[in-house]
Every structure is written in C-alpha cells, then in structure tokens.
C-alpha cells in the first residue's frame, strides 16, 4: 500500500462561460469505480438537456483504475484533458464531470482542450486538497488532570486529534505512522509517569490538511 496520497477535500462545483458555451464542472471523492460511475450518472441525470457530459476519474492510491470519456466531443478534446488535469495535480480517488451547454460558437479542438482542462483544474482547486496518510489509530485514555499535558504533547508533535470522549476519564483518538507506535507509547508513558492507557486500532488512511512544502 502507498504510504500517502493526495485527493480532493470535498465535493464541489464551478462554472465557466467561454464564447457563450457554459462549462459546469463537478468533482467528488471516490474510492471505487462503482462510486465514480454513480457520481457520473447523478450529474448526467441533473443535466439531461446538456450538449455533453464529459468525465474522467482515477481510483486507487496508485491509480490502478483510470477512465475518461469525450461524450460526443471530438476525440481527445474533453476526457483526456480532464484526466490530465487530475494527474497533473497528483490527485487520486477523484472523479470530475464537466457538463457543456453549447452556446452556438464552435471553439475548435484547441479551444475545447483548454476549456475542459481549465474547468477541471478550477473545480479541483476550489475544492481544496487533503492528504491521506497510512497510519495506525490509537486511543489514549488519561485522567482529566493530565489531559491538558497530553493535548500539548500532541500539538507539539504535529499529531492530529480526531475525536475526544469525556467519561470517567478522557479518551483521545489520534493516529501515528505505524512503525512509530512503540515510540509514541514510550514517549507518552514517560511524559505522564505511566498514568495512561492505550488502545491500538487498525492501520488505515487518515485525512489531514495538505501542506505543499512537505513531502507526501
């Protein structure tokens, strides 16, 4: 499995008008090809009177599934530019549909390529980017008096808090790179003088904000 990959932050849409043609782009995060197809069908159903509903998607952390469609536009002028836009932004598990309502003025092959590429790029930039990192989830249980110390430690070490439950004690859900689990347990145990309990979860992808100046 890939240690980390980028994907869109949220479902979004954007509209461009080019020489009276309206290009409406929609983007969604998908984890299977079935989800991608469902998303495409939904957008097509919402735009049944559109001239074209062109799309592309990549699925899998290593892009094992890639599909694109010109949906009636000249070959290579719509689906491929959308797919290239996704790949140029290094995004994964991402589907984009660009709907065109023809405005009466032909754009030519070059104009169509630019229109579909820009539409796809704009909607993905508008959505924002998240980084998915393979980590092991850990629930840390501490007393109320030690919670502030734990929270400070997590913040100082750049560890995200995904959920906090308050009961007889405080249960904080975080995640660390899998080969750092033992190191994390030792650090927190020493910090809190052993007054802490850990519940180790499964390894999975955890979402965090993407910082371009950091490596994936």
Search tags:
about 220 residues, 10 strands, 2 domains, Alpha-Beta Plaits, 5-stranded antiparallel sheet, about 35% strand, about 30% helix, elongated, Ribosomal Protein S5, domain 2, single chain, 5 helices, alpha+beta
Amount of beta strand: 35-45%
Shape: elongated
Contiguous low-pLDDT stretches (5 residues minimum) are none
Radius of gyration, rounded? 22 Å
What is the strand tally? 10
Give the CA-CA distance, first to last residue.
14 Å
Q: How many DSSP H or I helices?
A: 5
- How many structural domains in the coordinates? 2
H/E element sequence? EEEHEEHEHEHEEHE
Q: What is the level 1 CATH name of the largest domain? A: Alpha Beta
Q: Please identify the structural class as seen in this structure.
A: alpha+beta
- Describe the biggest sheet? 5 strands, antiparallel
- Helix share bin: 25-40%
**CATH fold-level assignment of the largest domain:** Ribosomal Protein S5, domain 2
Q: Averaging pLDDT over every residue, what do you get?
A: 94
CATH superfamily descriptor of the largest domain:
Impact, N-terminal domain
Question: Architecture of the largest domain in CATH?
Answer: 2-Layer Sandwich
